[in-house]
Write a structure and sequence with these properties.
By secondary structure, the chain is an alpha/beta fold. Helices cover 46% and strands 12% of the residues. The strands form 2 sheets. The protein has a 6-stranded parallel sheet. The chain has a 5-stranded parallel sheet with strand order 2-1-3-4-5, with helices on both faces.
Length: 372
């Protein structure tokens, strides 16, 4: 098979969890002699491909054009939705002028403003912007879901949410969980450098892109007067550099900002630390929790999104809008010995090898269905 992955145009200029997932999936599918190319173009030539796999339903201004292009060229089209709704976050997790807007405008209008803002500021203006403004944010998502041949949600909770919000037939879904590369996140084979051990030993990490959605501000507030050290790892997205300034202003002496750490070195930090804490407003999977738990870190997880499908009762859940809830979860996670069953659960169910095999099953199912 030869597959084309397509996603948002700023997939690499503004990388996120979806970027890591797409690159990891490509790496592991290629082990099975499947040719994978990645494109962020809207309407590429598809004549050399058997299937087009598009990602990110929540970017309908781009993904709709990509899907429509696949159908126009007669190619089977698969959607990995990574579907999230940030309505609660917009009203309760933002700050400044954006919070004021969210208090008076409906969710879809906030999305229009964000799309227009990126079009002007980052030069992301194209016909898809016109499409979403004329057809409507949710309507364009619905059109996308109707056009694709198969939908690959990461969890049963994500599948049910899409079914409820868009009335999509259950027969159109094929669940493919997220996963991580255990060749990299191998606890036994990871040697921790002395400088890393001396810095973060038995500390608490927060590995994530720095944005209000990830909720580092409340996490830092929860650390006031705690006897633990918090290490913030990550950089702000282009539109949230002021948020980093706010975090540094709020941080006490037990909070340290380490910036971006190379991915290949992250396992050392997880292994040296004791907890990974990230009280996000919404996570589809939260790949950093898979990474941390595989390296024997307890995980503090915001209780929104689809995370319970992944972490069951092994995580320490908290309310993202409640500093005391975050604080209590952090204390409990720190004082509780790591449960090795958690790591076994992660390794058994969420390896990239398993993700690749499930993805291939989905592709073969689709081609068989298309060929009668």
């Amino acid at each position: 098979m030869k597959i084309l992955f397509q996603s948002r145009q700023n997939l690499f200029s503004s990388p996120g969890g979806d970027t890591s997932y797409i690159l990891g999936l490509k790496k592991h599918l290629q082990k099975y002699s499947i040719k994978i190319d990645i494109s962020t173009e809207l309407e590429p030539d598809l004549r050399d491909y058997d299937i087009v796999n598009v990602f990110n339903l929540i970017w309908p201004q781009e993904v709709f054009i990509q899907v429509k292009n696949a159908k126009k060229q007669g190619k089977p089209c698969v959607l990995t939705p990574i579907y999230v709704l940030w309505d609660e976050f917009e009203k309760r997790g933002t700050y400044g002028f954006r919070k004021v807007l969210a208090s008076v405008l409906p969710y879809h209008c906030i999305q229009y403003l964000k799309i227009l803002g990126r079009a002007v500021k980052n030069g992301e203006f194209h016909k898809g912007v016109i499409n979403v403004l004329t057809a409507g944010y949710f309507n364009l998502m619905k059109k996308t879901l109707d056009l694709v041949d198969l939908i690959l949600p990461n969890s049963d909770l994500e599948k049910k949410k899409i079914q409820i919000d868009f009335r999509v037939s259950k027969n159109k879904f094929y669940i493919v969980p997220s996963g991580i590369d255990f060749e990299l996140f191998d606890y036994e084979k990871t040697d921790v450098d002395e400088d890393v051990r001396n810095l973060v030993k038995d500390g608490i990490l927060c590995v994530a892109r720095i944005t209000p959605l990830k909720n580092q501000l409340r996490l830092i507030k929860a650390f006031k007067d705690l006897p633990y050290n918090l290490f913030i790892i990550g950089e702000p997205s282009p539109n949230h550099k002021n948020y980093l300034k706010l975090l540094k202003k709020e941080a006490g002496d037990n909070v340290f900002f380490l910036g971006k750490i190379p991915g290949e070195k992250l396992p050392q930090y997880y292994k040296a630390a004791k907890v990974q804490a990230l009280p996000s407003w919404f996570e589809t999977t939260g790949l950093v929790f898979l990474e941390a738990a595989s390296m024997r870190c307890n995980i503090v997880v915001g209780n929104r999104g689809y995370v319970r499908d992944f972490y069951k009762d092994y995580a320490f859940y908290c309310e993202p809008d409640n500093v005391n809830s975050i604080r209590e979860a952090v204390i409990k996670a720190y004082e509780t010995p790591f449960n090795p069953e958690c790591r076994e659960h992660i390794i058994k169910n969420f390896s990239m090898e398993r993700v690749a095999k499930k993805t291939i099953e989905a592709y073969e199912y689709l081609l068989k269905k298309k060929n009668g």
